[in-house]
Amino acid sequence: MSRIGKKPVEITQGVKINKVDNCIEVTGPKGKLTLDIKGDISVGLQDKEVTFTRSNDFKKNKSLHGLYRSLLQNMVTGVTEGYSKKLELVGIGYKAEIKNKKLVLLLGFSHPIVFTPPEEIKLEAPTPTSIIVNGVDKQLVGAIASKIRSFRPPEPYKGKGIKYDDEKIRRKAGKTAAK
Known about the structure:
The chain starts with a helix and ends in a 15-residue tail after the last strand. The chain folds into two domains: 3-80, Ribosomal protein L6 (Outer Surface Protein A, domain 3), CATH 3.90.930; 83-164, Ribosomal protein L6 (Outer Surface Protein A, domain 3). The chain is an alpha+beta fold and 179 residues long. It has a four-stranded antiparallel β-sheet with strand order 11-12-7-13, covered by helices on one side. The chain has a three-stranded antiparallel β-sheet with strand order 1-6-5. 21% of the residues lie in helices and 35% in strands.
């Protein structure tokens, strides 16, 4: 039995979970998310917790057992607390600002980069060198943060680019002048 899959998901106060066929809908104060259950995984919905069980020990069902439990736990956390990722811009002249719900980035190119986020994502630029990506869906927040980082990933020589707040850039020694 999966160690993660055995644990029940506790339903916190203010969260409502509805199960229709193989679809679970989680509604909370910050939003609403849905999850489609595939395979031979059954969902048990009690008063304050949700449990997952599998009908057999096939490899696919073993994999999905813990996965669906983790996804539902992330959904419950997302609709109550939300998720956020912080990005930092490192480099002279690099800056970010929000205009009309669009992110405008100046990253040393000949033109500004304008990024329009999906409706579920909220972008903030508290300072010109930092960006905060907020949302309910953990996967979508990570994907949008990754997309913004891909516009100018940090380079190893000077460390210039867009990096995650907690990311450590491995620096390389540059070429030295030969005498």
